[in-house]
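Worked Example 4.2. Consider the chain below.
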Amino acid sequence: MPARFSPLDRSALLADLRSQVAGLEHAGSRPGQEAAVPLCPSLDQALPAGGLARAALHEVLAVGELGGPALGFIALALARSGGTVLWIAPEPEAWPPGLVRFGLGPDRLLLVRATRQADALWAMEEALRCRAISAALLFSPGISLTAGRRLMLAAESGGTLGILLRADSAAPGPAVALTRWRIAPLPALEPEYPRWQVELLRSRGGAGGHWSLCWREDDAVLEDEALTPAPMRRSRAG
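Applying the procedure from the previous section yields the following C-alpha coordinates:
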Protein backbone atom coordinates (compact mmCIF):
# COMPACT_ATOMS: atom_id res chain seq x y z
CA MET A 1 0.00 0.00 0.00
CA PRO A 2 1.45 3.42 -0.89
CA ALA A 3 2.82 5.21 2.15
CA ARG A 4 0.75 8.32 1.51
CA PHE A 5 -2.43 6.46 2.47
CA SER A 6 -3.35 5.58 6.04
CA PRO A 7 -4.73 2.08 6.70
CA LEU A 8 -8.26 3.48 6.92
CA ASP A 9 -8.12 5.66 3.80
CA ARG A 10 -9.90 3.00 1.80
CA SER A 11 -11.52 5.19 -0.84
CA ALA A 12 -8.17 6.71 -1.77
CA LEU A 13 -6.51 3.30 -1.77
CA LEU A 14 -9.22 1.84 -4.00
CA ALA A 15 -8.91 4.71 -6.47
CA ASP A 16 -5.13 4.30 -6.56
CA LEU A 17 -5.38 0.54 -7.12
CA ARG A 18 -7.87 1.00 -9.94
CA SER A 19 -5.49 3.44 -11.57
CA GLN A 20 -2.57 1.01 -11.24
CA VAL A 21 -4.64 -1.89 -12.57
CA ALA A 22 -5.64 0.18 -15.59
CA GLY A 23 -1.98 0.88 -16.25
CA LEU A 24 -1.11 -2.82 -16.05
CA GLU A 25 -3.85 -4.14 -18.29
CA HIS A 26 -1.68 -3.90 -21.39
CA ALA A 27 1.00 -6.04 -19.73
CA GLY A 28 -1.22 -8.90 -18.58
CA SER A 29 -4.84 -8.67 -19.56
CA ARG A 30 -7.48 -10.90 -18.02
CA PRO A 31 -8.24 -14.06 -20.00
CA GLY A 32 -11.55 -13.86 -21.79
CA GLN A 33 -12.76 -17.25 -20.56
CA GLU A 34 -13.07 -18.72 -17.10
CA ALA A 35 -11.16 -21.97 -17.61
CA ALA A 36 -9.44 -23.38 -14.53
CA VAL A 37 -5.79 -22.52 -13.92
CA PRO A 38 -3.65 -25.54 -14.92
CA LEU A 39 -1.04 -26.86 -12.50
CA CYS A 40 0.15 -30.25 -13.78
CA PRO A 41 -1.86 -33.13 -15.29
CA SER A 42 -1.81 -35.27 -12.14
CA LEU A 43 -3.17 -32.48 -9.95
CA ASP A 44 -5.58 -31.20 -12.57
CA GLN A 45 -7.18 -34.64 -12.91
CA ALA A 46 -7.86 -34.72 -9.16
CA LEU A 47 -9.74 -31.40 -9.27
CA PRO A 48 -13.38 -31.23 -10.45
CA ALA A 49 -12.67 -28.12 -12.53
CA GLY A 50 -9.71 -29.75 -14.29
CA GLY A 51 -7.31 -27.37 -12.56
CA LEU A 52 -7.40 -24.70 -9.87
CA ALA A 53 -10.86 -23.23 -10.20
CA ARG A 54 -11.29 -19.54 -10.87
CA ALA A 55 -14.18 -17.69 -9.24
CA ALA A 56 -13.24 -19.46 -6.02
CA LEU A 57 -11.13 -19.24 -2.88
CA HIS A 58 -8.33 -21.74 -2.18
CA GLU A 59 -6.39 -22.22 1.06
CA VAL A 60 -2.70 -23.15 1.29
CA LEU A 61 -1.08 -24.34 4.53
CA ALA A 62 2.66 -23.74 4.36
CA VAL A 63 4.99 -26.10 6.21
CA GLY A 64 7.98 -24.15 7.52
CA GLU A 65 8.57 -20.48 6.79
CA LEU A 66 5.38 -18.72 5.66
CA GLY A 67 7.20 -16.68 3.02
CA GLY A 68 9.41 -19.60 2.00
CA PRO A 69 9.23 -22.52 -0.43
CA ALA A 70 5.43 -22.72 -0.60
CA LEU A 71 5.46 -19.33 -2.30
CA GLY A 72 7.10 -20.87 -5.35
CA PHE A 73 4.15 -23.19 -5.90
CA ILE A 74 1.72 -20.34 -5.26
CA ALA A 75 3.60 -17.98 -7.60
CA LEU A 76 3.24 -20.56 -10.35
CA ALA A 77 -0.54 -20.66 -9.88
CA LEU A 78 -0.74 -16.87 -9.75
CA ALA A 79 1.35 -16.56 -12.92
CA ARG A 80 -0.85 -19.00 -14.79
CA SER A 81 -3.96 -17.00 -13.91
CA GLY A 82 -2.91 -14.86 -16.87
CA GLY A 83 -3.39 -11.28 -15.70
CA THR A 84 -2.78 -8.74 -12.95
CA VAL A 85 -2.15 -10.19 -9.47
CA LEU A 86 -2.80 -8.47 -6.13
CA TRP A 87 -0.43 -9.52 -3.29
CA ILE A 88 -1.75 -8.59 0.19
CA ALA A 89 0.41 -9.02 3.29
CA PRO A 90 1.46 -7.19 6.48
CA GLU A 91 4.89 -6.76 4.86
CA PRO A 92 4.53 -7.64 1.17
CA GLU A 93 8.14 -8.53 0.47
CA ALA A 94 7.92 -10.12 -2.95
CA TRP A 95 11.37 -10.92 -4.36
CA PRO A 96 11.09 -10.29 -8.14
CA PRO A 97 13.91 -12.65 -9.29
CA GLY A 98 12.37 -15.46 -7.27
CA LEU A 99 8.90 -14.88 -8.72
CA VAL A 100 10.07 -14.46 -12.32
CA ARG A 101 11.45 -17.99 -12.38
CA PHE A 102 7.87 -19.21 -11.91
CA GLY A 103 6.52 -16.92 -14.62
CA LEU A 104 5.24 -14.07 -12.44
CA GLY A 105 6.83 -10.84 -13.63
CA PRO A 106 6.86 -7.60 -11.58
CA ASP A 107 4.91 -5.84 -14.35
CA ARG A 108 1.87 -7.93 -13.39
CA LEU A 109 2.13 -7.50 -9.62
CA LEU A 110 0.46 -5.03 -7.25
CA LEU A 111 1.59 -5.10 -3.62
CA VAL A 112 -0.74 -4.04 -0.79
CA ARG A 113 0.58 -3.55 2.73
CA ALA A 114 -2.20 -4.25 5.23
CA THR A 115 -1.04 -4.58 8.83
CA ARG A 116 -4.58 -4.94 10.22
CA GLN A 117 -6.61 -8.06 9.50
CA ALA A 118 -9.74 -6.01 8.82
CA ASP A 119 -7.96 -3.96 6.16
CA ALA A 120 -6.42 -7.06 4.60
CA LEU A 121 -9.81 -8.77 4.34
CA TRP A 122 -11.35 -5.63 2.84
CA ALA A 123 -8.58 -5.38 0.22
CA MET A 124 -8.95 -9.08 -0.62
CA GLU A 125 -12.72 -8.80 -1.02
CA GLU A 126 -12.39 -5.76 -3.30
CA ALA A 127 -9.72 -7.53 -5.37
CA LEU A 128 -11.82 -10.65 -5.81
CA ARG A 129 -14.77 -8.58 -7.03
CA CYS A 130 -12.62 -6.71 -9.55
CA ARG A 131 -12.71 -8.22 -13.05
CA ALA A 132 -9.45 -6.48 -13.94
CA ILE A 133 -7.67 -8.71 -11.39
CA SER A 134 -6.97 -12.31 -12.41
CA ALA A 135 -5.80 -13.54 -8.99
CA ALA A 136 -5.30 -12.29 -5.43
CA LEU A 137 -3.11 -13.66 -2.64
CA LEU A 138 -3.71 -12.94 1.04
CA PHE A 139 -1.25 -13.79 3.80
CA SER A 140 -3.49 -14.62 6.75
CA PRO A 141 -3.25 -16.19 10.21
CA GLY A 142 -6.68 -17.67 9.57
CA ILE A 143 -10.15 -16.25 9.05
CA SER A 144 -13.63 -16.95 10.33
CA LEU A 145 -16.23 -18.92 8.42
CA THR A 146 -18.20 -15.70 7.92
CA ALA A 147 -15.20 -13.88 6.43
CA GLY A 148 -14.43 -16.91 4.28
CA ARG A 149 -17.97 -16.96 2.95
CA ARG A 150 -17.74 -13.27 2.05
CA LEU A 151 -14.53 -13.89 0.13
CA MET A 152 -16.03 -16.88 -1.67
CA LEU A 153 -19.00 -14.78 -2.77
CA ALA A 154 -16.69 -11.99 -3.91
CA ALA A 155 -14.61 -14.46 -5.96
CA GLU A 156 -17.74 -15.89 -7.55
CA SER A 157 -18.91 -12.39 -8.42
CA GLY A 158 -15.63 -11.30 -9.98
CA GLY A 159 -14.54 -14.61 -11.48
CA THR A 160 -11.20 -14.19 -9.73
CA LEU A 161 -8.79 -16.79 -8.36
CA GLY A 162 -8.25 -16.22 -4.63
CA ILE A 163 -5.55 -17.84 -2.49
CA LEU A 164 -5.23 -17.67 1.30
CA LEU A 165 -1.73 -18.46 2.58
CA ARG A 166 -1.29 -19.40 6.22
CA ALA A 167 1.12 -21.37 8.36
CA ASP A 168 0.43 -25.05 8.84
CA SER A 169 -0.62 -26.17 12.31
CA ALA A 170 -1.75 -29.30 14.13
CA ALA A 171 -5.31 -27.96 14.23
CA PRO A 172 -5.93 -25.74 11.17
CA GLY A 173 -9.64 -25.47 11.92
CA PRO A 174 -12.64 -25.72 9.59
CA ALA A 175 -11.98 -25.14 5.91
CA VAL A 176 -13.32 -21.88 4.52
CA ALA A 177 -12.34 -22.41 0.88
CA LEU A 178 -13.12 -24.63 -2.10
CA THR A 179 -9.83 -26.49 -1.66
CA ARG A 180 -7.27 -26.82 1.11
CA TRP A 181 -3.63 -27.69 0.37
CA ARG A 182 -0.55 -28.44 2.45
CA ILE A 183 2.80 -27.65 0.81
CA ALA A 184 6.17 -28.69 2.22
CA PRO A 185 9.62 -28.29 0.67
CA LEU A 186 11.61 -31.28 -0.53
CA PRO A 187 15.39 -31.31 -1.04
CA ALA A 188 16.23 -29.98 -4.51
CA LEU A 189 17.87 -32.42 -6.91
CA GLU A 190 19.63 -29.36 -8.36
CA PRO A 191 19.38 -25.73 -7.23
CA GLU A 192 17.36 -24.66 -10.27
CA TYR A 193 14.81 -27.47 -9.76
CA PRO A 194 12.77 -26.71 -6.62
CA ARG A 195 10.65 -29.58 -5.29
CA TRP A 196 7.53 -29.75 -3.13
CA GLN A 197 5.45 -32.31 -1.31
CA VAL A 198 1.91 -31.23 -2.17
CA GLU A 199 -1.16 -32.58 -0.39
CA LEU A 200 -4.72 -31.86 -1.37
CA LEU A 201 -6.42 -32.10 2.01
CA ARG A 202 -9.88 -31.04 0.89
CA SER A 203 -11.59 -30.53 -2.44
CA ARG A 204 -15.30 -29.79 -2.53
CA GLY A 205 -16.81 -32.27 -4.96
CA GLY A 206 -13.51 -34.09 -5.47
CA ALA A 207 -10.96 -36.37 -3.83
CA GLY A 208 -7.74 -35.63 -1.99
CA GLY A 209 -4.26 -36.76 -2.92
CA HIS A 210 -0.54 -36.17 -2.49
CA TRP A 211 2.26 -35.64 -4.99
CA SER A 212 6.00 -35.05 -5.12
CA LEU A 213 6.48 -32.27 -7.67
CA CYS A 214 9.50 -30.67 -9.30
CA TRP A 215 9.54 -27.35 -11.16
CA ARG A 216 11.69 -27.51 -14.29
CA GLU A 217 12.29 -23.85 -15.00
CA ASP A 218 14.07 -24.40 -18.31
CA ASP A 219 11.02 -26.24 -19.72
CA ALA A 220 8.39 -24.30 -17.69
CA VAL A 221 6.97 -27.65 -16.60
CA LEU A 222 5.66 -28.76 -13.21
CA GLU A 223 6.63 -32.41 -13.12
CA ASP A 224 5.03 -35.24 -11.16
CA GLU A 225 8.04 -37.28 -10.07
CA ALA A 226 5.97 -40.46 -9.73
CA LEU A 227 5.51 -40.41 -13.52
CA THR A 228 9.15 -39.63 -14.40
CA PRO A 229 12.05 -42.09 -14.16
CA ALA A 230 14.60 -41.02 -11.54
CA PRO A 231 17.62 -40.88 -13.93
CA MET A 232 15.72 -38.55 -16.25
CA ARG A 233 14.85 -36.25 -13.32
CA ARG A 234 18.51 -35.95 -12.43
CA SER A 235 19.77 -35.18 -15.91
CA ARG A 236 20.02 -31.57 -17.00
CA ALA A 237 18.47 -30.38 -20.23
CA GLY A 238 20.90 -29.70 -23.06
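The CA atoms of residues 33 and 159 lie 10 Å apart. Residues 10-24 form the longest helix (15 residues). Compare this with Example 4.1 before moving on.
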